[in-house]
From TrEMBL:
Belongs to the cytochrome P450 family. Residues 1-27, 486-510 are annotated as: Disordered. The keyword Phosphoprotein does not apply. PROSITE patterns: CYTOCHROME_P450. Pfam families: p450. This is Cytochrome P450. Residues 1-11 have a biased composition (Low complexity). It comes from the Bacteria.
């Protein structure tokens, strides 16, 4: 009698999988000239700017290329057809590698760093996704507004004192307070401090350390990074203590979160299995959400403010929209934010040029061929370089390096191929907080444009700091209080631009 067997794929080897193992035709993929024996493609590399170094190689080598560093070979992909192919969820999935894998000691099997096969990913995704529904978002809106008012109070004080404002510093205060108060009912008191909250310092420390681990040969890391490793352990311990304290406070005041993310993490059981998150997993999720929920949004707001200050005509158009849509409403309602279509385009265009989580990794879930050209074995993976995808002249035109929000008007968006704009990743593992970030950032840009004129420092040249995420370095802006606010009658918004309830995770592209 014939035996019936269900083919279960064999487990892939644990640890780093070099490109030699998974790409049988690596010879078809270019690499930089002048490889240094043992060290690899490290000439001219700066350990503080690995992403920007890689972008330079991308420009030289084209839509798919590889780099070798300390015996590890990686493949990078940014050509639109290749990225679109890798978005096919029937053949590819998220790969937890490099920087993301380096965050496992702090975020464990939390949503961002979980391996696809870990049961806690699906459990946490199902339990937490309703926390990003339209209803949930509308519930966070008043708190988002109140945090934004703390920011404008603080900027009013700086303006009165004749000082410029520290844009990334203040955006980080704003976004940390927003996620911590809306999600966890916790006030870090960021606006009452002159220096960043120690939570932010510890977080930046762990992100920078995770990035640094990629730039040293792994066996030597404990030796070469001895002091940094000790500091990283102290940072992780601090993050754990802060989060444990937040959880303890909530448990003591059970039910006080009115169904926020922390309530969901602690009390919600899975609708089908009845399971709930373990205490250890809750700790991982709280850290994940506090970090993922503010660092990237802060960078996006900072880049957007930089471009608005540099392009007064774009700022004027965005401001006119705010005046028209919000009129003299003191506190814009939830639905009035989604109607700021031009402001949202400014944000999208900033995320195009500087997607603040600038890469994500995809692996083949079975033996396949990438775009019909590059054979890949199951488990082979590549890093998608979104800043290059977003600057591909074939998709975005010869002026792809220019800041132009009209690239995101409805007609232009419809005319582009899918999967050409990917700041929030792709597929099942795309960003769960996408709508949260977009709502928060659009609201804040609207409030700031309505209240201030932004003046750049003429000598400032954009420099980008990397700590896995991207942030404009040392960006300060001068403010002027607007004198007259035009407040015309509310406008009717055409159907095509009305905000539609969307799945919090999957965008139109997915
Ligand atoms: C502009 C702001 C943001 C950007 C650019 C961004 C970008 C991303 C990207 C690219 C991924 C996919 C990573 C991968 O494939 O490895 C991701 C995942 C994730 N993001 Fe965001 N994000 C933002 C805001 C947020 C916010 C506000 C939250 C929470 C409130 C959040 C929570 C998460 C989580 C938990 C994941 C993992 C999802 C999963 O694997 O199931 N993000 N984000």
């Amino acid at each position: 009698m014939a035996e019936t067997t269900t083919a279960t794929p064999t487990a892939l080897p644990k640890g780093f999988r070099g490109a030699e193992q998974g790409w049988p035709h690596l010879d078809r993929i270019p690499h930089p000239p002048r490889r240094v024996p043992l060290l690899g493609d490290v000439l001219g590399a700066d350990r503080r700017t690995p992403l920007q170094d890689t972008l330079r190689y991308a420009r030289q080598l084209g839509p798919i290329f590889r780099r070798r560093a300390f015996g590890k070979e990686f493949v990078f992909v940014w050509g639109a057809d290749l990225v679109a192919d890798m978005a096919d969820e029937s053949r590819f999935a998220k790969h937890v590698g490099l920087g993301v894998a380096n965050l496992r000691p702090v975020a464990g099997d939390g949503l961002f760093t979980a391996y696809n096969h870990e049961p806690n990913w699906q459990l946490a995704h199902d339990v937490l996704a309703p926390g990003f529904s339209r209803e949930a978002m509308a519930g966070y809106h008043p708190m988002m507004l109140s945090v934004a008012e703390r920011l404008t109070d603080s900027w009013d004080r700086e303006l009165a004192a004749g000082r410029s404002v520290d844009v990334p510093g203040d955006m980080t205060k704003l976004t940390l307070e927003t996620i911590s108060r809306t999600g966890f009912g916790h006030d870090f008191g960021s606006f009452e401090r002159d220096r960043p909250h120690p939570f932010v310092t510890a977080m930046v420390g762990t992100l920078s350390y995770a990035q640094r681990l990629n730039s040293v040969p792994s066996p030597l890391a404990p030796l070469l990074l001895r002091t940094a490793t000790r500091r990283n352990e102290a940072d992780i311990a601090y993050l754990n203590r802060t989060v444990d304290e937040m959880v303890r406070t909530r448990r003591e005041a059970s039910g006080s979160g009115a169904g926020d993310l922390l309530d969901r993490m602690l009390d919600t059981t899975h609708a089908e299995t009845g399971e709930r998150l373990s205490p250890e997993n809750v700790r991982r999720q709280v850290i994940t959400f506090l970090v993922a929920g503010h660092e990237t949004t802060s960078g996006s707001l900072s880049f957007a403010l930089h471009y608005l200050a540099r392009h007064p005509e774009i700022a004027a158009r965005a401001r006119a929209e705010v005046d028209q849509v919000w009129g003299d409403t003191e506190t814009p309602g939830y639905d009035q934010v989604a109607k700021l279509r031009y402001v949202r385009r400014v944000l999208d265009e900033s995320l195009r040029l500087w997607p603040t989580a600038p890469a994500y990794a995809r692996e083949a879930t079975r033996d396949t061929e990438l775009a019909g050209v590059h054979p890949m074995r199951r488990g082979a993976w590549a890093l998608i370089l979104t800043p290059m995808l977003h600057r591909d002249p074939e998709v975005w035109g010869a002026d792809a390096e220019e800041f132009d929000p009209d690239r995101f008007d409805a007609k232009a968006v419809r005319s582009r191929a899918p999967h050409t704009f990917k700041p929030f990743g792709t597929g099942a593992r795309a960003c769960i907080g996408r709508q949260f970030a977009l709502h928060e950032a659009t609201l804040v840009l609207g409030l700031l444009l309505r209240r201030y004129e932004l003046r750049p420092d003429p000598a400032y040249q954009l420099r980008v700091t990397e700590r896995l995420t991207l942030m404009p370095e040392d960006l300060r802006l001068h403010l002027d209080r607007r004198t007259a606010t035009a407040a015309p009658a509310p406008v009717t918004v055409p159907d095509e631009v009305r905000s539609e309830p969307r799945c919090p995770v999957h965008g139109t592209d997915d």
